[in-house]
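Input record (one chain):
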Amino acid sequence: MRPIVYFFIEHKTREYETVARIAHLLDQKHSISSRILSIPFHSHYLMWLPPPDLMVVPFGMDEQDWPLRAILHRYDFKMPVLNMCWEQLLSDCNKDYKRPRGEFLLNHMRYIAWDVPFQDYLIKSGVDPSHISIASNPNVSLLAVKQRQYVHFNQQFRHQFGIAHDQTICFLPMNYAWAFISERTVQNRIDRGYDPDQAVAYHSFSKQSLERFLTVVVEIAKTYPELFIVLRPHPGVSVDQYLDAFDVPLPANIKVTTQGTVQDWVVVSDLVGSSWSTVVYDAFKFGKPAFLFQPFALPDWLDVDWMHDVPRFQDQSHFDAWYTSLALDQGCDAGERNDYFSSVADHIHFMVSSSDATALNVHAYGWSYRYRFLRFFIRALLMLLKIRNRNFLRDYFKAETIGSTK
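The corresponding structure, as predicted from the sequence alone:
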């Protein structure tokens, strides 16, 4: 019987394409099958699926994270688990909050790092250095693949959104998620280990920055009608929430949307900007003109080294000076071109070849876990029926199996 790997995905738009490419490489190159599952929509599958040879998760801070908690309960520490670490360009406050902790994460889990600085961060957190593999940046690798389809994406988006052929596309993937969360959510994060003072300050700072951004982006759109501004909310924020936040009618050359993937928009865009989203870093590394709009000085705990490599604007006058001096070019030949997909597929093949699934002790789930699985199932059903948390539907996909399971 073929070996099989289970991939768990948190955000479809962020992770699915990369994971699917790795899964197809595993199938074609290494004769390893894969199941791709959504954490919010498919966690309950763990109740009946047979043990895989390897579990792959998108993140992990401690042993209580879901679905890691359920995996460890069912298989003890003997199930091999690989953490793809989808968030690696961390501010100081998040470095402390998201550092790995606990016996399993420090001494048993394996990790994918994009570069040496993140590898060093894991080692300083207590992770065994031999459990870390460096495989470059997945987002830049995916952009390199998608750049070959530039003509297709450009024609598709211009037709779909009514963008004139001579309009300059400015893509703004905004990371003001903390501006939209409730006081209760802030407290939940504090309860999970976030510094209380920083959490309260982050919430306030994000709301203040968002308010200023909404005013400035409208003025920029009015000043430059040749710009078509595509504003993409953070995965945890809906289009309606952004539209409600604007207190003036939007100009025709601003579109708030979650349609299309982030990478597709980066490829077709002439400019890429944000508040502090790492998409700007990806676009910059790929060779796109990129900028950050930060009307207020970032607190030290929110600042990140990579932000100092790209232009940062405090008001429209700074944007005006930068934009009018640009020589826009669709060639985009700069940037990294390392093959993340093959590196990770080869590493997974090595882990699977070294694992021994027959040594697993499989435990039944007790009533507390069954109740939690039921809650996940009901919540997913309500989302699919558009009764609750409809903005999370963007993360839905059908559970997929790649390769034979026989």
